[in-house]
Amino acid sequence: MNQRASNLLDEALGLVDEGTNPWTLSGRVLLIEDCVETSATFLLHHLLKRALYTLSSNVVVFLALSQPFSHYDRVLRKLGCNLAAQKENNRLLFLDMLTSEFPDGGESGLVALYGKIEKVINGLIEENKKSITIIIDDLSLLEVAANGASNHVLDFLHYCHTLTSVFGCTLVALNHEDIYSSMEKPALILHLEYLADILMKTEPLATGLATDVHGQLTVLNKETWDGQGRSRNRIFNFHFRIKENGVEYFSPGSRA
Amino acid sequence: MATSKSRTSSFSRNLTAVPSSNTPGLKYGPNGTIFISSGIPDLDKILGGGFALGSLVMVMEDAEAPHHMLLLRNFMSQGLVHKQPLLYASPSKDPKGFLGTLPSPRPCKDDKDKSRDHDPEQEGLRIAWQYKKYFAEHQQTFDNTRDGKHEYCNDFDLRKPLERHFLTGQHIDCVSILHNSDLVALRDRCATFITQFPRNDGSIASAGRIAIQSFCAPQCEYSNVEWDMLSLIRSLRSMIRSSNAVAVVTFPPSLLLPSVSKRWQHMADTLLSVRAIPDEDKELANLLTGYQDMVGLLNVHKVARINTQVPVILDATTFSIKLQKRRFLVLECLNQAPIDGASGNSYGTSASCSASSRTGTLDF
Predict the structure, then answer these.
(1) Domain containing B101: what range?
(2) A1 lies in a domain?
(3) What is the tens place of the pLDDT at every residue in B10-40?
(4) For a tag on chain A, would you pick the N or C end, based on fewer CB atoms within 10 A?
(5) Predicted pLDDT at A38
(6) Cross-chain residue pair B307–A204, CB shorter than 8 Å
(7) Measured between alpha carbons, how far is B255 from A2 in angstroms, rounded to an integer?
C-alpha cells in the first residue's frame, strides 16, 4: 500500500523505483521554498513518508519548529504512515523545538543541536548510517529562534551539509522565499540555493485561487554527472492539488 | 503497517471529542479541532466555523483606519458573553477603558424576528436557481445557532455597550504595551494566562482569548527590537498551539520592514487584512453594488490548517464589511454591478487584492 504508482513529483526527484537503489536522494540537499499564499509543507510530509517507507533502514531526524508532534502525527496518519510507531522503533527521531530558543545569537544552542544530531547518527548501526534524512521545518523559524543570527543558522546548515557528504545523509529544509525577496543580500537563502541539489518551489497560480488546482510546483533537479560524464539541470513544472491522503500532480493544462 | 496499542485503526474517530452541550461557545470541527466564534457570524461561516483553538490569528491593519478594531471588539465581546477569560493588550494608557466600548449582544427576544428580517423579503421573491444553494446554507446556519440560550455566535449591536455584569469578575486581564519596550513582561503575562488552559485529551472546561491590538505600533517603541518581537510571536504561537486558547494579534504591516512583515504573516495560522474604502471613489462605486453601505473590505489570506495539509480554498477572499442598520456587522461577497463588460479588468485588480499578480518563472 505504500508503494503507490509513481507520480510526477517522484519522477522529478528521481525517486522512481528501479529496483537497484530505491532511495536515490542520499547525499543530496533538497531545498523547498514557498510563500504565504501557497504553503509547501505537503512536500515535507511526502518526503517524510517516502524516507520512512522506501527503505526499512532509513532513519529520519525531524527538526520541528513549526508544529507539535500531534499535528504531524495526524497528517501523516491520513497519508498512511504511523509516526508514533516509527518513533517507537527509533526510525524517527522527532526533535520538538516548538518552544526552544537559543539566546545570545544562538551559537551555543545551535552547536548543541548539531551535536545532538551527530550523536544520533554516530549511535546508529553501520547499515542505517547510509540512509539518514534530516528534515527541517522550517528555517525561518530557526532564524527567529536564534534571534536573527542568520550567520549562525548558516553555519549550522553547513555542518549539516558536511553530514551529507560524510555519511550520505539527505538534508531537506523548508524556507519561505517571500521573506527574502525584499532583502538586499539574503545570504542564507542564496547559500542554500547554491548548495541545494534539488530546489522545489511552490507558487500560487497566476490566475488566483482555484478549488481544483492548489498551486504550481517547480522542481529544479541539478543532476550530477550522468553515465556519459555530463551534468545537466532538469526543470519540471507542474500543478498540484492537495488532498488528505495524498497529493495529485499533473501537467499544466491537463485538467479540463 | 505497524499499529500502536493506543489506536487500532488510522481512521478511528476520537470518541472523547464528542460535543458536550454544557460548554457554550465551543463547536467541534474537522480533524479534531474545536472552534470558538469570532463574534461575527459571517466571519465564522467564511472560516468554516470560527477560529480553531490553538491557532494564532493575525489581522493586518489599514494604517489609516480603525477597521481592525471592529474585528477585535466583536472577538472580545463574544468571549465575555461566553464567560471565557480574556487577556487584552493594547498600546493605550488605559486598556481597561477599551472594555467600555465593546458591543453588546442582540437581546434574545427580538433576536428571532430581527435576525430573519432580511430573509422574509427574499422568501417572497423567486430566487434565481444559481443562488438557491447559498440561501439554503444561510438558513441552516441560522437555525444551528439558535438552539438554546447560549448561542455559539451572537450578533453584536455596535451602538450598545456591553452590559456591566459581563465585565465584572476575575477573568479579564488588561496589559498596556505603551512605552514598554520590555517584551519579557508581556510574554510572561501571556504565558501565565495560557497556563489556565492546558490541553489534555478529555473535556474542555473553558477556552481563553488573547487580543493584542496594534502590536508593532510606534508608541510601543519596539522599532529596534524586531527580532524580539518575532521571537515573542513565535513563543506565543507555540504556547497557544498546545493550549485551548486563541490569540488575535493586529498589526500595521506598513510599519514593518517587508521581510519582517512576511515573517509575521508566515507565523499566522489565520491571516486576515482589513482595508478602508475611500468615501468618494467614483470608480469603485460604479463597479460594486451596495457601495454606499460598505465601510471597508476584509481579505482572507490564509485559513488555519491544523492537523491537516489540505488548504482551505474559499469561493471568494475579499468581502465587504457592512453595517446593517448601522448596528450589526455583516460581511458580504462583493457583487459586481451590472454594467458594461469593459470594466471587468479593473474590477479584478482593484477589488481582489489577494489575487496574485506574480507570474511564475515558467509558464505555458
Answers:
(1) 27-108+153-281
(2) no
(3) 555 554 444 454 577 888 888 889 999 999 9
(4) C
(5) 93
(6) no
(7) 49
